[in-house]
């Protein structure tokens, strides 16, 4: 009986050990399974992040003002000069101040370029296809590039942020950005998202703005035109909106844009001046008690264009100069005898084509960018150039030598 009792006890003890071992093994396997499950989940999450094409991976700096890129000074003959000092004729041009962040880019090696300043991601090599405006919008929205599918058509201000006015013909850094045609041609025009609210000679009430990265212009084109004759190129962009102004009226005749940290005069100078006189006027101004006013460069002045207004707008509530109504513009009667608003000088010089002297200066049309008949040809908000003085070489427009001034200064 004693032997039987010992045998039963031994069996019970063995069963107990077996159960304990089994429990430990299961727990261990469970921990291993959980580790594997977590690893798979992490890898899936990583894969999901790679495939999830949202702009959350980009930090866009609105509205960090980018330098024009122009670092040379020019005299009355359009030739480069080594230096200009305060009090000299033509002092106060773009290269005297060198405002804005120097352009800087990163090539991702996958057909995309990051603007190190704005944070926007750009399509490096655009298709050579010519689009109507709507087809360009659709192309960008359907584009899948470098694992991203949230591409969009850029605004004028976004496209202009990569324009390089230190180069010219093309006005683009081709180390990073490829031309769609592969050639330096005046047809290198790129659609923007800005549909024109006015009526142009070419497009009627169906026009949209584009940036020409060879000639440097912003013009409104027929939105319905397509193909080699009237179609335009498009360069897609990713990221949150860049170029959104945040105005505050200081109540003293000045407006601050908190997005750019620039202060502007609420009204213009009230009369047309040639370019030399415009520079001198800005340098001597003491508006609102400040003595550091200057003539804005081309990117700064284009940066306050509001493309939702035009003197030729079909919507009565949008009739006016192409600028936020917080500002005022001097009204004029244009070459066609129509109510209009003027052009405004920038401090940035231009040449008519590569290799020629810089006889010209860029201006922004806050009124209609008219042809010789005074008809709205390139749209209010267009950016063109003209000769700096009466009697100088004519540009593409050539009919106005005296333009208005809106002053700017830095607030930081």
How would you describe this protein?
There is one protein chain. This protein is an alpha+beta fold. It contains seven helices and 18 strands. It has helices at residues 2-51, 94-97, 133-142, 156-161, 227-230, 275-284, 298-302, and strands spanning 73-74, 80-81, 105-107, 112-115, 121-123, 189-195, 207-212, 218-222, 237-238, 247-249, 254-257, 262-265, 331-333, 339-341, 343-350, 360-365, 383-387, 408-410. A hairpin with a 4-residue loop joins β10 (247-249) and β11. The longest helix has 50 residues, at 2-51. The chain starts with a helix and ends with a strand.
In a few lines, what is going on in this structure?
With 412 residues, this protein is an alpha+beta fold. It has 7 helices and 18 strands. It has one domain (53-412).
What is the topology?
Elements: H1 2-51, E1 73-74, E2 80-81, H2 94-97, E3 105-107, E4 112-115, E5 121-123, H3 133-142, H4 156-161, E6 189-195, E7 207-212, E8 218-222, H5 227-230, E9 237-238, E10 247-249, E11 254-257, E12 262-265, H6 275-284, H7 298-302, E13 331-333, E14 339-341, E15 343-350, E16 360-365, E17 383-387, E18 408-410
Antiparallel strand pairs: 1-2, 3-4, 4-5, 5-9, 6-7, 7-8, 10-11, 11-12, 12-18, 13-14, 15-16, 16-17
InterPro entries: Lcl_C
Pfam families: Lcl_C
Keywords: Membrane, Transmembrane, Transmembrane helix
């Amino acid at each position: 009986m004693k032997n039987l009792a010992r045998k039963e006890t031994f069996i019970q003890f063995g069963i107990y050990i077996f159960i304990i071992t089994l429990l430990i093994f299961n727990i261990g396997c469970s921990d291993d399974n959980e580790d594997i499950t977590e690893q798979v989940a992490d890898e899936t999450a990583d894969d999901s992040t790679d495939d999830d094409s949202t702009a959350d991976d980009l930090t866009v700096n609105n509205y960090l003002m980018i330098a024009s890129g122009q670092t040379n000074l020019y005299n009355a003959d359009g030739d480069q000069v080594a230096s200009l000092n305060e009090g000299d004729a033509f002092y106060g041009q773009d290269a005297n101040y060198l405002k804005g962040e120097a352009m800087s880019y990163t090539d991702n090696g996958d057909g995309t370029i990051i603007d190190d300043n704005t944070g926007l991601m750009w399509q490096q090599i655009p298709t050579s296809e010519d689009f109507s405006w709507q087809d360009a919008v659709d192309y960008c929205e359907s584009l899948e590039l470098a694992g991203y599918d949230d591409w969009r058509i850029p605004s004028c201000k976004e496209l202009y942020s990569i324009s390089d006015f230190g180069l010219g013909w093309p006005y683009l850094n081709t180390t990073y950005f490829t031309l769609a045609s592969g050639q330096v041609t005046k047809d290198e025009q790129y659609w923007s998202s800005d549909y024109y609210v006015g009526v142009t000679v070419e497009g009627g009430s169906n026009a949209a703005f584009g940036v020409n990265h060879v000639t440097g212009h912003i013009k409104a084109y027929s939105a319905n035109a397509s193909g080699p004759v009237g179609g335009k190129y498009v360069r897609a962009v990713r990221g949150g909106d860049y170029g959104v102004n945040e105005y505050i009226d200081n109540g003293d005749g000045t407006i601050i844009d908190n997005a750019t940290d620039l202060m502007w005069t609420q009204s213009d100078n009230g009369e047309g001046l040639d370019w030399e006189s415009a520079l001198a006027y800005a340098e001597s101004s003491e508006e609102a008690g400040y003595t550091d006013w200057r003539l804005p460069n081309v990117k700064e002045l284009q940066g306050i264009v509001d493309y939702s207004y035009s003197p030729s707008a079909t919507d009565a509530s949008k009739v006016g100069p192409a600028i936020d109504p917080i500002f005022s513009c001097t009204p004029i009667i244009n070459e066609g005898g129509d109510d209009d608003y003027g052009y405004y000088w920038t401090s940035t010089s231009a040449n008519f084509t590569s290799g020629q002297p810089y006889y010209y200066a860029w201006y922004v049309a806050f009124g209609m960018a008219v042809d010789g008949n005074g008809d709205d040809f390139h749209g209010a908000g267009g950016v063109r150039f003209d000769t700096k003085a009466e009697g100088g070489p004519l540009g593409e427009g050539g009919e106005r030598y005296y333009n208005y001034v809106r002053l700017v200064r830095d607030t930081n």
